Amino acid sequence: MSWFWRQMVSTNFERQLFDRLAGMGFHIAQNGTEHTHPAFVDKLKRSTDQTSLAIRYQPDGVASLGEIPCSFYIEAKTTADPNQKTHKIEKNAWEQYWRLQNNGNIVVIAFGKFQDRGNEKAYNFAWHWNFLKCIKLIPGQETVSHFPIGQRFPVENDWVYPRGSKRAAELRALGNDNFSGTPYREVVTESLLPWDTFRQSIIERLDTS
Question: Are residues 109 and 145 in the same domain?
């Protein structure tokens, strides 16, 4: 599955998400230098200092509601493969979102599970969401246990590390460079909420009086 296709799916879901939020009455805007200065962010893709990571892994959008608006961050996560059973979260992204959360910000993640290819203007997704603090992740050891022993990625502190593994070298030798090499964990699907609970739950969480 090509990087271009995954990008198309991700971009389409983000657009649908912002449209849905606007339809619910939220004021929304894209967030982060990924959108405002993409060439600059591209230069940071190998940087590991904290400031660069904070710039690279900003949530996709900000939204607000109320006469005197209260705001929250929102990140869009998608699966591009209809056979993928659950969502994945990159380690660096997860840690940066939690830094925002620990500083008193409201951080929400919207999840779109790709259903079928359709056409460019009508990608179909199964929608879920939750507040960051309520989302649970599967231990990496459980994730890799589904693969044959010789093909398992290394696991460190519950995070799966594909890059540098024997399996990654085998895939590269076969000419398959379409996998992500960044550390990740899978999301516990049962920790996500149905989309129809989103608006009321956000209103209750925000102080919009």
Answer: no
Helix H or strand E encompassing 16: helix 3-23
- In tens, the pLDDT along 79-125 reads 888 778 899 999 999 999 999 999 999 999 999 998 875 555 568 89
Mark whether 124 and 43 lie in a shared domain: yes
> Residue 182: phi, psi to the nearest 5?
-80, 145
Same domain, 71 and 27: yes
**Cα end-to-end span (Å), the chain:** 47
Q: How many residues does the chain have?
A: 209
CA nearest to 181, candidates 190, 194, 172: 172
For residue 41, give its domain range. 3-137+187-205
pTM value > 0.85? yes
